[in-house]
Amino acid sequence: MNFGRVQPKEHRLEPESNPFDDYRDTDRDPLVRIFDDYGRPDLHWFGVGLLASLLSRLVSLVPPLVLGIAIDSVFTPGGPAYSLPLVPASWVPSATTDLVVLSAGLVLAAFALGVVFSWVQGVGLSLFSNRVQHAVRTDTYALMQRLDMAFFDDKQTGQVMSVLNNDVRNLRTFLDNTLSGAIQLVVTVVGIAGILFYLNWQLALVTLVAVPLLTVFTLRFMTTIRPLYRALRSSVGALNTRLENNLSGIEVIKTSNTETYEEARVTEASRDYYDRTWAVVKLEYLYQPSMELLAGVAFAATFVIGGLWLVSGPPLFFTGELYVGEFVTFLFMTQRFIDPLAGAGRIVNAYENARASGERIFGLSALPVTVADAEDAVVLDDVRGTVEYDSVDFSYANGVPVLHDVSFAVEPGQTVALVGPTGAGKSTAAKLLLRLYDVSDGSVTLDGVDVRHLALDSLRSAVGYVSQDVYLFDGTVRENLVYGAFDATEAEMVAAAEAAEAHEFVENLPDGYDTRIGERGVKLSGGQRQRISLARAMLQDPAVLVLDEATSAVDTETELYIQRALARLTEGRTTVVIAHRLSTVRHADQILVLDGGRVVERGTHDELLALDGLYATLWNVQAGALDEADADILDALEARDRDALKTG
Ligand code: ADP
Asked: Within a domain: residue 355?
């Protein structure tokens, strides 16, 4: 078999760890839980569907029954009188032709009713399963959104997508056909077994011998296939993750010239998926025909014993009389008994498949969430903007310490700048203020209240975050601007855009504020995106601002725009700025120099230069000279602007 250009056997890559294998809830049968948690509001639709499906089964029994009676009573001279179960004898006509018409009419009516019941069954069960699917998906999405940031650091987005899409859809298929099929099967099998016993209990025993055999065989199959399905669902997610990561990183793949490497990785993930699917399919194809074979043997045994009985009287230890019509009915019924039994394999199979999906869905929602509202969470009404870090220690989930004993305080309206080499912990420190993560030790307080005691809503509307990699949603400029401040008026939006120096370039876009940007729209430059995000922050108007400054350089004119926008944005707001270019923090009230997660120096620009430590080194050696030149130009331009404003 050819799996593409790259042969996986020779290019075996290290198997990737998959945290999703641990996110699995196996405590309670997930399908019972689905019913319990999500099925209740629409249970009536399930009831309607199930009832219709049972009725359609029931009416399907009428033709063989009527046929058997007709053969014995109408077509066989000297046979028993024409009598229908549950129908009074006085309703049955006596003329033979009338009996033929009656029989045909009954068969036709049964078929017609069968069609109606099937239709009702389809509608009822589809409504039920689609509604449950919708509820499970939206609920799981909402839960997923509340998971800790640490969860998303694993970058298993493909797995999450696969749970929300494939696994939820898998459940729907199960609820749609399989569940009602299973109930129908049990009712049919038990019901028909009763009829078989009623018709001829001795022959019925011959047919029913197959049942315990099929049951044992099926139970064995279920326990064998369960782990295989779990592995299969995981590999669907792993493949999705790989594809999703590669699509997001396509620029890096192209520029690093790693297409062949990535092809090998995708081939590997796809190969894994193939292997696991094949393991399931192999078992299925062993099981399903075996079930059919067993069922066939049971049918043949019934036919042989019954046939011999008709031809030469009761064989072996059997006793009594058997009529042809009775035997025909018996054989038809046996067929209706055997077929669903043989089909039980498909149901069991679908059940195991859905069960593996259910475990993943509930596994996701069972993940512990640590960053959540405390029970007595405080809502801040009027935020002044005092921020204080007190002896903060922090490490990410991997346990490596990132911050040690970080302490500082910012008064309302002041600006504190975090500077230091890459990896020093600046962004991490800032994220703690937004409570994207919880501190490991110490505390972060806003207006004197520990952020862990603040309602998340309240905290995140008080603290704005302007990140360096601006994420624009697929939509119009307007939609992106008012994101998070949805009730802003047109005038407020334009004012914010003007303050962020974005109004002018937005007006020049093909459709102005209604221009589509983001994934499927106009692509904006880095500087334009930054100004959109500044305008967004202006509209949200938070008391405290966390500013993760852009590293990517923009031309001096754009820089000027951005600096002016920033000056307006930070005016009167407590600001924590993560500075990558020192020129922008010269005017900060306080500068903290972080190195290896510790505050190594603190003070104003001039104090730190005088200290002649790490800051001074960064300033002088790394970028100082250049930045100073840039800064001087900016100062000059700003001064010219101010003069222009005064004279204008
Ligand atoms: P800076 O902003 O100063 O460049 P960061 O705060 O981004 O530094 O990173 C500080 C340290 O924490 C680095 O060693 C980085 O590798 C680590 N780190 C950052 N984010 C995560 C994360 N999500 N999970 C684990 N480690 C992280």
From this structure: yes
* 327 and 402 fall within a common domain: no
Question: What is the tens place of the pLDDT at every residue in 128-141?
Answer: 999 999 999 999 89
Rounded to whole angstroms, the Cα distance separating 51 from 267 reads: 47
Instruction: Count the domains in the chain.
Output: 2
Q: CB–CB of 620/546 below 8 Å?
A: no
Whether residues 223 and 277 share a domain: the answer is: yes
Q: Which helix (H) or strand (E) holds 56?
A: helix 43-60
Question: Is the shortest distance between the CB of 329 and ligand 1 below 6 Å?
Answer: no
Assess whether 583 and 537 both reside in one domain: yes
Query: Mutation test of ligand 1: which of 151, 154, 396, 419 has the most ligand atoms closer than 8 Å to its C-beta?
Result: 396
The per-residue pLDDT for range 284-340, each reduced to its tens digit, is: 888 888 888 888 888 898 888 888 888 887 777 777 777 888 888 888 888 888 787
Nearest CA to 424 out of 284, 574, 556, 599 is that of 599
Q: Atom 15 (ligand 1): residue with closest C-alpha?
A: 423
Range of the domain at 179: 9-365
Q: Are 38 and 132 in contact (CB under 8 A)?
A: yes
Token pair 């002896």 is found at: 391
Q: Which residue type sits at 355?
A: R
Assign residue 613 a region (left: φ > 0; alpha: ψ between -120 and 50; beta: otherwise). beta
Give the sign of the dihedral formed by CA 503, CA 505, CA 511, CA 515.
negative
Q: Among residues 470, 570, 486, which one has the least CA distance to residue 528?
A: 470
Residue 342 sits in the same domain as residue 203:
yes
8 Å CB contact between 3 and 266: no
Which CATH number goes with the domain that contains 551?
3.40.50.300
CA of 150 to the centre of ligand 1 (A): 12
Q: Is the pLDDT of residue 449 over 90?
A: yes
216 close to 291: Cβ distance less than 8 angstroms: no
Distance CA(131)–CA(133), nearest Å, equals 5
For residue 212, the SS3 value is helix
Whether the full predicted model's pTM is greater than 0.85, yes or no, is no
Q: How far is the CA of 599 from the centre of ligand 1 (A)?
A: 16
Locate 358 and state its tokens: 């259910």
- 192 is a domain residue: yes
Atom of ligand 1 nearest to the CA of 424: 3
The answer on 187 and 41 residing in a single domain is yes
Q: Select from 307, 330, 365 the last residue of a domain.
A: 365
C-alpha distances out from residue 477 to 127, 461, 507, 524, Å: 38, 22, 10, 10
Closest among 307, 382, 369, 295 to 339, alpha carbons compared: 295
Asked whether residue 590 is domain-assigned, the answer is: yes
Q: In one letter, which amino acid is 215?
A: T
Q: Are residues 220 and 73 in the same domain?
A: yes
Whether residue 135 lies inside any domain: the answer is yes
Give 390-446 as a 3 state SS string.
EEEEEECCCCCEEEEEEEEEECCCCEEEEECCCCCCHHHHHHHHCCCCCCCEEEEEE
As given in the structure block, the two tokens for residue 24 are 């699995």
**Does 148 lie in the same domain as 98?**
yes
> CA nearest 515: which of 526, 530, 527, 502?
502
